[in-house]
Amino acid sequence: KFDLRLQKVHRYISDDATPGMGASLDYETAEGERMPAEIKMSLFGDGWEWEGDRLTSAPEHYIIQCQHQIAVTNAKSALLIAWAGFNVRTMLIPRSDTIIGELRTRISAFWADVKAGNEPPVDFQMDGEQLTKLAATLRYKDVAIDDPDFALLCEMQKDAAAKAKAEGDKADEYKAHIM
Q1: Could you give the C-alpha distances from 26 to 9, 13, 108, 124, in angstroms and in order?
Q2: What is the model's pTM?
């Protein structure tokens, strides 16, 4: 459709300027000045805007991902190819040294925290699924419950689960009426 020649990338690319920063590209352009080519599919979602076959806006996290790839490849731009609005569209994303500088700063800080053993605080709402998976790997005889609020937390979880079930049942009832 766009007469593009792309080639699959089979290597991990590390950033020379920032230890611990790297990327695996989907593709890169095969002609002219090489640049990362990121392919996305989105049947719906916020952030997509276009005029004809050209994307004029894309979700912020895709733009940041492309800036990351631009940084590690030292490219001047990246090509975003997306199935958006039931059509294939493209967007050329120019290099932003401001965004790349912020990425390098945050990645450096992340690895410094890892090296220093500084863990971020647990966000029980956001991290619940992963904590549940982690807990499933423990043997019960290895678990020591030393939290004085443990019994209270168990009771609160039981009450919240019962309320969620009741709300879910009510939602199912409304849905049945709608159907």
Answers
A1: 6, 12, 24, 33
A2: 0.72
**153 beta partners:** none
Could you read off the pLDDT of 96-123 as tens digits, one per residue? 999 999 999 999 999 999 999 998 888 8
Q: Provide, for the chain, the percentages of residues in helix, strand and coil under a 3-state DSSP scheme, each rounded to the nearest 5.
A: 40, 25, 35
Q: Are 83 and 62 in contact (CB under 8 A)?
A: no
E-strand spans in 65-137?
Answer: 77-84, 88-94
Kindly tell me if the per-residue pLDDT of 141 is higher than 70: no
Look up residue 164 and give its amino acid. Answer: A
**Interstrand relation of 49-51 and 27-29 (parallel, antiparallel or unpaired):** unpaired
Q: How far apart are the first and last CA of the chain?
A: 41
Residue length, the chain? 179
Reading the block at residue 165, the tokens are 């079930």
Query: pLDDT category, 171, cuts 50, 70, 90?
Result: confident
Chain-centre distance for alpha carbon 100: 17
